[in-house]
């Protein structure tokens, strides 16, 4: 996870003072904490919301009037947070019984909303690509929207194999309705928590519309994560991650690449077999081949992930 900014370090000092004041107390009521992130502008955030909104899982997350809200469970404590743009940056509000979770939540959100993107380096890597020049000039560098946990990203990716975004999101909503824990303090349309691996592996997935082979892949993923606490380590190489996840029946290169991008936040991944990528790189109405796509993307290293986002945005998928 990225280092904390000075502003966030000051914030941590203040909520650690709150912890000391409340030490020894039990049954603390939910508390509302507010913080401002200064590293994402309004336009960049709203562009991310346009990507996230059609993928919001009912009960877990929602986008309302330019504000993103979702539930969470960290360090055995649950709650919800919201993010919305203001002139100074993004206002974060967190409701939870235990402020200790902010130690994990703030760095997590920096990753989820790509707050530490090296904009100058990414622009230098992509601006030589003629097809991106107008898009970058008009819309800027796209941010990488990382799913709240890598496990959730992997579940979403498996559900999304060979179906539309809308269909995958519907399946995820059904899964959450069956397996997701109820949020102790619901907020608007946020009232469930996305299930973790331990819960999912014990959940009956029949009757949700998930194909039997997909069910087995989900069970295999959940079992692997339960057995290996470092399965989704942010410190592993892509090769290490690819070897582990593709060892699961039903997981191939596309899923591995997608989860590496949207689950682990890897900046130099390229899903060469992605239909949207191949369409965007095609010519004269013909799709590019994966080999042709890889050749084109070599020039975007070490930020091929952002080139992929540009291609998706070109095709209306980002």
Explain what you see.
The chain is of the alpha+beta class. It is built from 14 helices and seven strands. The protein has helices at 6-22, 42-52, 102-112, 119-126, 130-139, 150-159, 165-179, 197-200, 212-227, 238-245, 253-262, 275-280, 290-297, 304-314; strands at 31-37, 61-64, 67-74, 77-86, 89-96, 181-187, 190-193. The strands form two sheets. It has a five-stranded antiparallel beta sheet with strand order 1-5-4-3-2. It has a two-stranded antiparallel ribbon with strand order 6-7. Helix 6 packs across helix 7 (165-179), helix 6 runs antiparallel to helix 9 (212-227) and helix 6 runs antiparallel to helix 11 (253-262). The two termini are 24 Å apart.
Descriptors:
318 residues; TATA-Binding Protein; Endonuclease III, domain 1; 2 domains; 5-stranded antiparallel beta sheet; 14 helices; disordered N terminus
Question: What is the secondary structure topology, with strand pairs?
Answer:
Blueprint: H1 6-22, E1 31-37, H2 42-52, E2 61-64, E3 67-74, E4 77-86, E5 89-96, H3 102-112, H4 119-126, H5 130-139, H6 150-159, H7 165-179, E6 181-187, E7 190-193, H8 197-200, H9 212-227, H10 238-245, H11 253-262, H12 275-280, H13 290-297, H14 304-314
Antiparallel strand pairs: 1-5, 2-3, 3-4, 4-5, 6-7
Helix pairs in contact: 6-7, 6-9, 6-11, 10-11
């Amino acid at each position: 996870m990225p280092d904390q900014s000075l502003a966030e370090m000051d914030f941590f000092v203040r909520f650690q003072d709150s912890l000391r004041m409340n030490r020894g107390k039990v049954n603390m009521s939910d508390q509302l904490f507010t913080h401002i992130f200064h590293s994402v502008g309004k336009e960049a955030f709203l562009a991310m919301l346009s990507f996230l909104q059609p993928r919001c899982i009912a009960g877990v997350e929602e986008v309302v009037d330019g504000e993103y809200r979702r539930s969470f469970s960290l360090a055995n404590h649950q709650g919800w947070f919201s993010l919305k743009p203001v002139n100074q940056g993004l206002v974060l509000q967190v409701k939870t019984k235990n402020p200790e979770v902010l130690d994990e939540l703030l760095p997590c959100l920096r990753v989820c909303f790509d707050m530490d993107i090296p904009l100058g380096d990414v622009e230098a890597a992509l601006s030589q690509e003629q097809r991106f020049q107008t898009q970058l000039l008009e819309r800027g560098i796209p941010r990488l929207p990382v799913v709240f946990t890598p496990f959730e990203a992997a579940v979403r990716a498996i559900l999304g194999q060979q179906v539309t975004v809308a269909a995958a999101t519907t399946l995820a909503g059904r899964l959450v309705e069956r397996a997701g824990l109820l949020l102790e303090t619901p907020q608007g349309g946020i009232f469930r928590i996305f299930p973790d691996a331990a819960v999912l592996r014990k959940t009956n997935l029949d009757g949700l519309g998930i194909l039997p082979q997909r069910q087995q892949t989900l069970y295999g993923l959940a079992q692997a994560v339960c057995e290996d606490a470092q399965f989704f380590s942010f410190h592993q190489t892509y090769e290490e991650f690819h070897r582990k996840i593709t060892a699961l029946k039903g997981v191939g290169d596309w899923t591995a690449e997608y989860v590496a991008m949207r689950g682990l936040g890897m900046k130099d991944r390229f899903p060469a077999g992605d239909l949207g990528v191949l369409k965007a790189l095609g010519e004269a109405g013909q799709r590019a081949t994966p080999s042709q796509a890889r050749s084109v993307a070599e020039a975007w290293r070490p930020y091929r992930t952002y080139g992929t986002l540009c291609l998706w945005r070109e095709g209306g998928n980002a």
